[in-house]
Amino acid sequence: MIVAVSAVLGQAEVATSRFPILSALILVPALGALIVATMSKRRPEWVKLTAVLFSVFVGAISVWMLASFKTGSSDFQMVSKHEWIHTWGISWHLGVDGISLFLVVLTGVLFPLAIIGADPHHDEKPYLAWLLLLEAGVMGSFLSLDLFLFFVFFEIVLVPMYFLIGGWGYDKRIYAATKFFLYTMIGSAFMLVGIIATVFLARGAVGHVTFDLVELATKSNFAASTGRWLFFAFAIAFAVKVPMFPLHTWLPDAHTQAPTAGSVVLAGVMLKLGTYGFLRFGIYLFPQAARNSRAIFLTLAVIGILYGAIAATMQKDLKRLVAYSSIAHLGFIVLGIFALTSQSITGGVLQMINHGVSTGALFLLVGMIYERRHTREISALKGLQKVAPVFAAVFTIVMLSSIGVPGLNGFVGEFLVLIGSFLTARWWTVVAASGVILAALYLLWAYQRVFHGEPDEDNKSFAELHWKEGMVLLPFIAAIVFAGVYPKPMLDRIQPSVKALISHVSDKTGYVDPQPASKTGEAQP
Amino acid sequence: MIVAAGTFTAPSIDWFALAPLLVLLVGGLVLLVTASFTPQWPKHLYAYATVALGLAAMVVAFVQWHAITRDGPKLLVGNAVSYDHFSMFGIITICIGLSLSAMVTDDFLRREGMEGPEIYGLYLMAAVGGIVMVMSNDLIVLFLGLETLSISLYVLAASNRRRAESQEAGIKYFVLGGFSSAFFLYGIALIYGGTGSTNFNRILTAFDSVPLQRKDSLVLVGVALLLVGLGFKVSAAPFHFWAPDVYQGSPTPVTAFMASVGKAAAFAALFRVFVVALPNWKDDWRPVVWVLAILTLLVGSISAVVQTNVKRMLAYSSISHAGFILIGLEAAGHSGASTRSGMPSSMMYLMIYSVLVIGTFAVVAVVGRTGDGATDLGSFRGLSRQKPWLATALTVFLLAQAGVPLTSGFIAKFGVIEAAVDEHSYALATIAMVSAVIGAFLYLRILISVWLADAEVGDEKREAMHIPISTGAAILLCVGFTIYVGVNPEWLIQASDRVVLVAVPVVGG
Hints:
The structure holds two protein chains of two kinds.
Chain A: H1 2-8, H2 13-16, H3 21-38, H4 44-68, E1 77-85, E2 90-96, H5 98-117, H6 124-143, H7 147-156, H8 158-168, H9 173-201, H10 203-206, H11 213-219, H12 224-241, H13 250-257, H14 260-270, H15 272-285, H16 287-292, H17 294-314, H18 318-339, H19 342-373, H20 384-387, H21 389-403, H22 409-424, H23 426-451, H24 457-460, H25 467-485, H26 488-509
Antiparallel strand pairs in A: 1-2
Helix pairs in contact in A: 1-4, 3-4, 3-6, 4-5, 4-6, 5-6, 5-14, 5-19, 5-25, 5-26, 6-7, 6-8, 7-9, 8-9, 9-12, 9-13, 12-15, 13-14, 13-18, 14-19, 15-18, 17-18, 17-23, 18-19, 18-22, 18-23, 19-21, 19-22, 19-25, 19-26, 21-23, 21-25, 22-23, 22-25
Chain B: H1 19-37, H2 45-71, E1 74-76, E2 81-83, H3 85-112, H4 118-135, H5 139-157, H6 164-195, H7 200-209, H8 216-233, H9 242-249, H10 252-277, H11 282-305, H12 310-335, H13 342-368, H14 383-386, H15 388-402, H16 408-422, H17 426-452, H18 469-487, H19 490-497
Antiparallel strand pairs in B: 1-2
Helix pairs in contact in B: 1-2, 1-4, 2-3, 2-4, 3-4, 3-10, 3-13, 3-18, 4-5, 4-10, 5-6, 5-10, 6-8, 6-9, 7-10, 8-10, 9-10, 9-12, 10-12, 10-13, 11-12, 11-17, 12-13, 12-16, 12-17, 13-15, 13-16, 13-18, 13-19, 15-17, 15-18, 16-17, 16-18
């Protein structure tokens, strides 16, 4: 898919450098939200059409951006920089590199699918407006290269998500929404203090007050103890967002109670704000501190993998099961990030995308089951494979991708994470690898209970996959298979930036990235 | 400053420099006198006259702002009144508060059948008192302003004669306010005893010139008493107990006025006294302010959580905002007024908060309906279905108060936290942000009622909500300001950065 697109738009690079493509990615959905919010309630079909068009348009821009992305370059591309609050050294600074590239594309593609694929049942207009605003916020978080700007977007996404969960969720939605909002906000509270402290403490080294990420990261040099505190201030916010054990308790509630589109977006892209934040801000700004505290994060990641998997096994609610599986999957990503090798981080970045695709699809499928049966209780579902074989087949593919079966996307990312991590975090990796088996356990067992056997009275009338639903799911399946069979185009774009990050860490701390091929013995972390 | 009566010469007075004050004072008196000799004016006119006076004073203050930028600050009336950017910033804040409150009050009074000029006269007098406080460069002048403001506010709080709650609020405010004024006055006396002057600049220089060994304890007790007196006015914990009752009982627009103009004037005075007059004792008062700030933040945000009346919730939230502004004072206590620090961010916070709080209370006044009684959380249920735009405006205000980015509230919080972190007060900054999260729970509770809960049983039988035109305009202005400053705060930051250049006496003068 990517190859085809780049072939078509092959020579478009020169032209795009002038158009502020990244700003458009943020402003178009925001404008869409504004227009949808002011439209008349009496013509819901027009409202929906507008929202769909806006989100598809954003998706198209993101694909265009992908096509004009220069492969092999590790720099920030399509940079757009305008002064915003001069007195405080804040600017509207956007840029995309290999680490954020596919997250942006994923956001651009996932939103239209979520909007088309899930029905809010009531009050469509505010629902769509909130979703578009959410898209703008998520895009902004992935594209910001200014600490203040990032914080603005990081925090602003809470508001639409809060209203989406609270307004269109299930029974305990208000509890879940409030919990989600407060948990995340407490994390950002520390991060805000951390951001300001970073800026002021770096003032001496940088020469002036600036919130610019690149400038701060390249020029600043924090003492080990200072850097550690600052790093932890950022890390709390990201750890809540990921979420890492033991700060994860908001996630099962938020996921289970959120409307389908909310869950898709939450799992698909919003959780990645945490892992992405670790890479873009945590490690980039405080390499020494990140290295020093890696044992803590590796341990929490491994606990998350095992705990998420075991908790998922025990769930009675299908959606809650998927939610817990997210904790386990995100644990792998964190493991990859803090193992700090180029393979493991590349795998982590790839796994962010993979998890977004497969878990997004899983939530859509669970949503479809709920639409038909008005329950997500595993015990109430039985024998669906008999009555809806195509639905079951799609579910199988997505589930296998989530398990990490070779040939599908999940395998590539997980495998890279595990080989990369093995070099620097051997025993953590050994324990984490057992999480792969547990993933197979809880997903296959759930599949067996839901789809196998003879359908009882309630499940006999379970409707087969509608072609419209199929069209929504088709891109997911295509991405799952494509990235599983031929991940090279993605790796080619991710790897240079990851290598650049590692060499930044090396410059600042004298760290050496271990190479798996070298025979010089065990690498030193 | 005490001069033998025989040799007294009146100081020369620069009338133009006092123009904003005079506009409101003369305007207020004329309004009261003419209104009492004429029959009831046609509707809106009292309010429009007040708004016009407020705007006129504000325009003059803007002109003076530029004059000060050009010619520099100076002291007036025998060094007792200061004419500087700090004063003008405070005056503009007070005038904004006055005009917006008057717009909200207009429809409210008609709805409650209390139409008359008295409230506006009191507003104008209170604003005059506030301006005197903001401009003061002498403790006695400050006290005059404080009393003018306070007495007007006592009467305003009790101005709804038909509601017992309003009477109760007035009495409570009066008794406790009287106490705090006494503390304040005693503090002035002790400072005078210690330093030999009530003038800010002489208090400042007394630190170097007077042998303070024996008198230092006098000054320190005086500083503490001043802090108690002003701490009461700004409703800092543990002197906050009046605030919830008074905010809840007062007529809603008066509450808005109190929370904006009253608070802005009291905080400006607090900064004048502690940063301009008493910076030499900053190592003594700064730790106290640190404790006060944390107490205020936590008491405000935690007590708000268990309330069920929206006006009471907002009273506690106002206490928590006072905590944020105290952070600015604490930051200013590190480096004094000379550097970029807590003072500008606190003044900016005051202006932003004044607009926010008036907007919020304007919505509450509309939802309160006739009788001003429907202010419990239940009355807000289903607001989004009845009045979606009103609900949207309330949402903007509450999110801004919670400090969500792209609203003015975030810029305000960011400013004070930045000042605190710049002075390495990390603990204070962190506690403030955590308390902001606790406070956010309160705003979320209101938002849940507004957007997510269905209307109360029997709500359809109640009087329909009616958004009158001038209240609507006030709400619209507040929303506009909130979002505009949130997106483009540069000009406000630059303006507030200038307040650090306070007027000092001419050498030898």
